[in-house]
Design brief:
nine-stranded mixed β-sheet, alpha/beta
């Protein structure tokens, strides 16, 4: 039912994740108990027995000799009950009772069976199901139903449902039995329709695989091929070659036209064409559907005959041309470059003369988009899916929505998206948003852009944002539900990595490296536009050389500028500043300090330039994704070295966790970053490089396209209908704002105490909570979750405290055993609790050969069931919420969204997931299971009800009390929701101590605030950060926790130096 996967990145730590295989709801089981009583006047003879038979293998498939024998109830007369029978959950099963002679194995021994009209039917639900076919006579003495594990019942009792004469498949209830209000209110089963709903979700996911019946139209501004006119002699030579040409070919000729692949440049359409039509791909990686590209062929003609010839020339390459006249194409590009491009990048730089925008540019833009829509409309069929790309074609979805029947349309925005404040000032804002909402699926590079889009829709169109089943986010507007997806573009790593070994790349890289010798090379490739921030980069480099003279004559900067709408102006300014820097810091006989080149750059030359560089320096002011850092990691696939400095305003900064991020407007931070990467030790640089390289190297562009297209097909199959989960969520109860801690008072009580216990949370308490999570693209289930171990000084404080026989120190964490062993394994005597206490290491010195880790209990079939359900739903969320992962533990399963770019939006997803799983809701998927759903900082976790830090603390306190007697001092420190459980236990402990101290035998009323809950002296509960909490006190941050431990360690050492003879006698008596 499960398999184990792990992931290691360089020197970073890895966590083994137990992942269940794909969920089969047929594997979920319910333990069913059958109760039966004979009809009046037909008692059973002592030589007879009763068995239950039914329509499944577990009940013998109607064979009386293979049925389940019932046993007589020793308490209730004339009643029988079966042992628990494990039946498939949520699947109807017919059954009946058979009375036969004991030990009989032939039909002649059967005295009585239920009449055919009296067949029963059961739909097993929950983890325990009781069928009361005894008239309810055994109910009041059923002690098993009176057991309430962890304050909640998970058994289900029903009367029989009989198949009568209402017709095939019709069900009616049997006679109502006396109700048991307490059971009816609390014993809530998992309804069968919930499991059916989950099964439908899983089936829908599988049924959206692309097939040969699907026809995908991928619409870009430019085709992946361009067409050019050739002479008649050339055409004659190329005609034969083009005959029967396959789409994987890079070129061909037909008549007077040559079709040439637009290769060499780093363009998305060309990359997609290579991936989707690559003949060398394994069979399982190829798209089984038909794919057709739609776009501008790069040639202008109004002659109908020539257009027909071009259509025929492109047909073997699976391309449909969009014919534009020169004026239309020029007007559109002008509008996009001067107005839309800055607008999309959140800049108010467009002209405010509405007459000019309306009369010329906007009309040209609309006509341009209409031409693309018309080219697609003529080819549409029943299996068509249309995938439109980028801001040039934002109005295409609107024109496609006018077609009849309306096609299923997806739109992927490769650039950024503006905020409400910027888009709100654009005169045609409603038309832009309205066209995008004409789609069925919208996709963005990162969550921040989707958040801005939703904000614009809410403020400008009064649209609503909703969350659907399986982690689907949607915008509701004008009676439509538009799915919003986040899934950034990836590079085809394997394809590019193979090109590194190309002779041209190797030779060019060697030439560039020879020019600089042993100097450290900063390099970058940027478009010639203001948002690239190249001038800021050069000014920062100049400042770096001024402020860090130790790096002068040791570093150079290579900057290449590719074509952009302001390239000429920008290159002129760059060269002027470069000359100034070279004049100031250059030396005769050395290569230039700054080199500026410009022009088209083929991918091979791009790879050569980056492979010859040591550090990538990016200072873009706003970039939708920025493929440059990704290509840098590809370029260094062989040597596995290099550093990346990336602007935090680039889209890629949200998932490149190893890169150094800078604010491009803060020159000082850029200077500091350059100094840091140059002076960092090799181990740190290697670790940072491998962390991001492992992510980039798993990039599969073909899989990225497949996932987006499958999502589009899923919407088509569903007909746009997506059901929402019910809205109901319970919030964590906290008691108030804690008080500041008086460290002197803590030290004072610590010194006075003879027996002390310290309970300490790990991340967020002993060390900053800087956990990062990484889901490599193209590798489902392969997870990495990294964190920061405690500082060596903190570990030393723990060693000092744990060595004291009178002090028990225990670290509690949600982490697995491997992580805690790695970080705390060498601290002798330290107690550890992993996964909130499901696993633990007892504090104190361990006996040689003793088992280190103890486990609370073995996993059961029931645990496998609820984990499989939770994992299957969380996996859907992880697939659609970029940057989130699923963690599978021994006692819990969690959806972690710490690294999701838009935190506020990710929290909405988390709330939605909590509702879907909530065991307290009747329609919650985990209703009826002994679990609870926890909403923590950046995660949603489903865990067993009997596992939490509070219960772990209770267990450990009892052990310490048995070993040492009265406990004089307790310190409990934590920072998040999971620590509230142990704070609550400490409050109860403090109240008990107060009652003992006052000799009061009656319990006082439960306090309702922290101020009223004054604990007895010597018990301290501390939360990290000032926030509502069950803790009585708070410290500001982890540094104050470290200071507290340091003072406690010093007090411990001072106490040993001044120990009295009675104390020494007691210490020597300790084991």
């Amino acid at each position: 039912r499960a398999f184990l996967k792990g992931f290691t990145s360089g020197s970073g730590h890895s966590e083994l994740i137990l992942m269940p295989s794909t969920l089969d709801l047929g594997q979920l089981r319910t333990r069913v108990i059958f109760r039966w009583a004979p009809e009046e006047g037909r008692p059973l003879h002592s030589s007879e027995e009763v068995c239950v038979v039914g329509s499944c293998q577990e009940l013998g498939n109607w064979d009386p000799n293979s049925g389940v024998v019932l046993a007589r109830n020793d308490i209730v007369a004339n009643c029988w009950a079966s042992p628990a029978v494990s039946l498939p959950a949520g699947r109807p099963v017919q059954y009946k009772y058979v009375v036969r002679r004991r030990g009989s194995s032939h039909e002649g021994g059967i005295r009585h069976t239920d009449p055919e009209v009296g067949l029963h039917i059961i739909v097993p639900t929950g983890r325990r199901h009781v069928m009361e076919d005894d008239g309810g006579r055994s109910r009041n003495v059923d002690t098993t139903l009176l057991t309430r594990p962890m304050g909640r019942r998970h058994s289900h009792t029903t009367t029989a449902i009989r198949l009568g004469k209402l017709g095939p498949g019709t069900v009616r209830e049997g006679k109502d039995l006396p109700s048991w209000p307490q059971l009816d209110q609390e014993a809530t089963p998992a309804p069968a329709h919930n499991l059916e709903r989950l099964e439908k979700l899983i089936t829908d996911e599988k049924n959206t695989e692309l097939s040969s019946d699907d026809h995908i139209f991928i619409v870009f501004r430019l085709l992946p091929f361009f067409v050019e006119r050739i002479s008649e002699s050339e055409g004659a030579k190329g005609a034969d070659a083009a005959e029967g040409a396959e789409s994987s070919e890079a070129s061909g000729t037909k008549g007077p036209w040559r079709v040439q692949a637009a290769e060499g440049e780093l363009k998305q359409v060309s990359l997609l064409r290579q991936e989707l039509f690559e003949t060398g791909l394994p069979e399982q990686d190829r798209l089984p559907c038909r794919v057709t590209f739609v776009g501008d062929p790069g040639i202008r003609t109004k002659d109908p005959e020539e257009r027909r010839q071009i259509v025929e020339a492109l047909e073997p390459f699976r391309c449909i041309p969009v014919f534009l006249d020169e004026k239309e194409a020029h007007g559109q590009l002008d509008f996009c470059n001067r107005i839309l491009w800055p607008l999309m990048h959140n800049m108010k730089t467009f002209q405010v003369d509405e007459t000019i925008v309306e009369a010329s540019h906007w009309r040209a833009y609309r006509d341009f988009n209409r031409a693309y829509a018309e080219a697609v409309k003529t080819q549409l069929g029943s299996g068509s899916l249309v995938w439109v790309h980028d801001f040039h074609l934002q109005m295409v979805p609107y024109y496609l929505s006018l077609a009849s029947p309306r096609p299923t349309v997806g739109f992927f925005l490769h650039c950024a998206f503006p905020s409400y404040e910027v888009l709100g000032s654009f005169p045609h804002r409603e038309e832009i948003l309205g066209s995008m909402l004409s789609c069925h699926l919208l996709a963005f590079q990162i969550f921040e852009y989707s958040r801005r889009f939703i904000s614009c829709c809410q403020n400008l169109l009064n649209a609503l944002c909703s969350f659907k089943e399986a982690g689907v986010l949607a915008v509701e507007h004008d009676g439509k539900s538009v799915v919003v997806r986040v899934d950034h573009l990836v590079l085809p790593y394997s394809r590019f990595a193979a090109r590194i070994h190309d002779e041209h790349v190797q030779r060019r890289s060697k030439e560039l490296r020879q020019e600089t010798g042993s100097l450290q090379v900063f390099a970058s490739v940027d478009r010639g536009e203001p948002f690239a921030g190249i001038m800021l980069k050069l000014r920062a480099f100049q400042k770096f050389l001024q402020d860090c003279p130790q790096h002068q004559h040791r570093v150079v900067l290579r900057q290449h500028v590719t074509p952009g709408f302001q390239r000429v102006k920008i290159v002129k300014e760059l060269r002027r500043l470069a000359d100034e820097i070279n004049k100031t810091f250059g030396r005769q006989g050395e290569p230039p300090v700054v080199t500026i080149t410009d022009g088209l750059l083929r991918v091979d030359d791009w790879l050569a330039m980056l492979s010859a560089a040591d550090i990538l320096l990016d200072t873009s002011l706003n970039d939708g994704l920025n493929l440059n850092p990704l290509l840098f990691y590809v370029a260094h696939a062989v040597d596995q070295r290099g550093s990346v400095i990336v602007s935090e305003l680039s889209g890629c900064s949200s998932f490149l966790t190893g890169a150094t991020k800078v604010n491009p407007w803060n020159t000082g931070s850029i200077v500091e970053a350059m100094h840091d990467v140059l002076t960092a030790d090799e181990e740190e640089k290697q670790s940072r490089f491998l962390k991001d390289h492992s992510y980039v190297s798993d990039g599969k562009l073909q899989q990225w396209a497949r996932q987006n297209l499958m999502e589009l097909k899923r919407i088509k199959v569903a007909g746009g209908g997506l059901e929402s989960w019910a809205v109901n969520i319970s919030h964590v109860k906290t008691e108030g704002i804690p008080l500041p801690i008086d460290l002197n008072e803590v030290i004072k009580d610590y010194r006075k105490a003879k027996t002390r216990v310290l309970f300490l949370d790990n991340e967020g308490t002993l060390a900053p909570d800087w956990r990062s999570v990484l889901l490599p693209r193209g590798a489902p289930g392969l997870l990495q979750r990294e964190g920061v171990p405690p500082d060596p000084s903190v570990l030393e404080h723990l060693r000092v405290l744990a060595r004291d026989p009178g002090t028990t120190v225990i670290v509690l964490s949600g982490r697995g055993t491997d992580f805690l062993d790695r970080w705390f394994g060498d601290v002798e005597g330290l107690g550890l609790c992993a996964e909130y206490g499901f696993y633990w290491v007892p504090p104190g010195r361990q006996e040689p050969g003793a088992e280190r880790w103890h486990q609370l209990r073995e996993s059961s079939q029931e645990d496998d069931d609820w984990k499989a359900i939770a994992y299957e739903l969380m996996k859907m969320y992880a697939k659609r919420v970029q940057g989130s992962i699923v963690q599978y533990k021994g006692s819990a399963i969690a959806w972690n969204y710490r690294q999701v770019g838009a935190v506020a939006m990710a929290r909405e997803f988390a709330v939605n997931l909590s509702r879907a799983l909530d065991p307290d809701l009747p329609d919650g998927l985990l209703n009826g299971y002994p679990v609870e759903v926890i909403s923590g900082k950046g995660y949603i976790e489903v865990k067993r009800q009997d596992v939490d830090k509070g219960r772990a603390v209770q267990r450990l306190l009892a052990e310490v009390r048995d070993r040492h007697g009265v406990i004089d001092f307790i310190l409990c420190v934590g920072d998040d929701r999971s620590d509230e459980d142990m704070f609550e236990v400490m409050k109860s402990h403090a109240r008990a101590r107060s009652r003992e101290a006052s000799q009061d035998s009656f319990a006082s009323p439960r306090p309702t605030s922290v101020e009223e809950a004054s604990p007895a002296g010597g018990i301290y509960t501390i939360t990290v950060g000032r926030k509502p909490s069950q803790a009585r006190h708070y410290v500001k941050d982890t540094r104050e926790v470290s200071d507290l431990l340091e003072r406690l360690a010093k007090a411990n050492q001072e106490g040993h130096r001044h120990v009295s003879m009675p104390d020494l006698t007691r210490l020597l008596a300790q084991p």
